[in-house]
Design goal:
about 450 residues, DNA polymerase, domain 1, 3 domains, two-stranded parallel sheet, 20 helices, RNaseH-like_sf, 3'-5' exonuclease activity, HRDC_dom
């Protein structure tokens, strides 16, 4: 989870760190626009049928289940899930922006013939019995990468899965949030007003439990309908490869996570950067000790304000946030640690990237590479529009730039496919992109 971004002023308000996912993809369908124009221009064109209003989904079919909080209850839940049939809908609720880390504070599972179960992983920290009960059955999740890590922490790991958010992207849906996808396929309105609450709260309020149960209520029906559409659009194999890759997904461990501190770019000296680093780790230690989100201890703007003044005593600390005074000794100790670092050991202001330079500079550095990249981008955009899929889901920008900037020795389709796969590109993506790369390199050969 990224550190909170804040304004330049030191704010007294806590900063929410709930991840904001990109849940919309622009719909650039030309034909749809033409149809709409023709309908307006032609007096004989029939009126477009009005979509029926969505039906609120505000109560689970079987009511809101009790929360499993004992080992006996967990054994009962596992037995029920084992006796069910078909895939298992799975979800987890975290306390992002409230607690330290990304652990799960509620796990929801639902299966045909088993009903819905809400399990407290704080009271039952080892869900291995549930994992064994699910076995090799397919998991259904929405936005799997948000939950896989915290579910693995409590012993839940899928053997196969279906991600309804990723499927929505592959199918070209204009909005891919769970509520939007449910409305698109089922005509149901799924409320999401409790998505960013503090799920570490105990006891959990009944409206929150209702929300949690509804999150898995229709995932199986949704998965079946989306599976049909994937087949109709000849994208089943694309989805299979994407879901298979998710089974091996792990969160990226960031190098120097403190470098994501908002406002770090305003610090002009290496010594100042070292102070920010020490302050960041001091805040992280406090947050971990208090089991509180770091942004609720002190916003990034507070760290930058302290680093700018570099106080050597608590009397010299900047004013404006009570946490600066409350943890004054820790902040001053961090500044002193940074001040004692030898000049040669100070961290650089920026890290050198192992990737190619920014694409905007290619025209000056290597015009041929720039022309190749532009051609492939244009062809990829055309492919994406024709197949109604976001271009970034056909190929992420980073591996594409890397292969164009440092091409393989064999500049044929197979050579480019191997190079793309070495950067984590799926086989179906390599099958699409490699021929475009080979064509671009043939059109724009190396200068004589």
């Amino acid at each position: 989870m990224s550190e909170p971004t804040t304004a330049s002023a030191v704010s007294e308000e806590p900063v929410s760190e709930e991840p904001v996912s990109d849940t919309s993809v622009s719909d650039s369908s030309v034909s749809a626009g033409q149809d709409a124009t023709e309908a307006v221009d032609s007096p004989e064109a029939p009126a477009e049928p009005t979509a029926p209003p969505s039906v609120p989904l505000d109560e689970p079919a079987d009511g809101v289940p009790h929360v499993v909080e004992t080992e006996r209850g967990l054994t009962e839940a596992a037995a029920a899930i084992a006796a069910g049939e078909g895939p298992v809908a799975v979800d987890a609720e975290r306390a992002s922006g409230y607690r330290y880390g990304q652990r799960a504070y509620l796990v929801q599972v639902r299966r045909e013939g088993s009903g819905t179960w809400l399990i407290d992983p704080i009271a039952c920290p080892d869900l291995a019995p549930l994992d064994e009960a699910i076995g090799r059955a397919e998991w259904i999740l929405h936005a799997a990468t948000q939950d896989l890590a915290c579910l693995a922490e409590v012993g839940l790991r899928p053997r196969q899965l279906f991600d309804t958010e990723l499927a929505a992207r592959l199918l070209g849906l204009p909005r891919v949030g769970l509520a939007a996808v449910v409305e698109h396929y089922l005509g149901l309105a799924l409320a999401k007003e409790h998505s960013a609450v503090d799920w570490s709260t105990r006891p959990l309020p009944q409206p929150w439990l209702r929300y949690a149960a509804l999150d898995v209520e229709v995932l199986t029906e949704l998965r079946n309908l989306m599976g049909v559409d994937l087949a109709l659009q000849d994208k089943s194999e694309w989805a299979r490869q994407e879901f298979e890759a998710l089974l091996h997904w792990e969160p990226t461990e960031r190098v120097d996570p403190w470098r994501r501190t908002s406002g770090l770019n305003t610090i002009r000296s290496r010594r100042g950067v070292a102070i920010v680093r020490e302050l960041w780790y001091a805040r992280d230690d406090i947050a971990q000790d208090r089991d509180t989100s770091p942004g609720r201890i002190l916003p990034d703007a507070g760290l930058i304000a302290i680093a700018t003044q570099a106080p050597m005593s608590t009397d010299d600390l900047p004013r404006g946030h009570r946490a600066i005074a409350r943890y004054g000794r820790q902040w001053v100790a961090a500044v002193k640690r940074a001040s004692a670092i030898d000049e040669a050991d100070l961290p650089p202001r920026t890290l050198r990237s192992d990737g190619p330079p920014p694409a905007r500079s290619w025209a000056d550095k290597d015009p041929v590479a720039a022309a190749r990249l532009n051609e492939v981008r244009t062809d990829l955009t055309t492919f994406a529009e024709q197949h109604r899929i976001p271009v970034e889901n056909v190929c992420s920008p980073d591996p594409l730039r890397r292969v164009v900037w440092r091409p393989p020795v064999a500049r044929d389709v197979e050579g480019f496919a191997d190079a793309l796969r070495s950067h984590g590109v799926r086989q179906w993506q390599a099958d699409v992109v490699a021929p475009l790369l080979a064509k671009a390199f043939e059109t724009h050969p190396d200068p004589a």
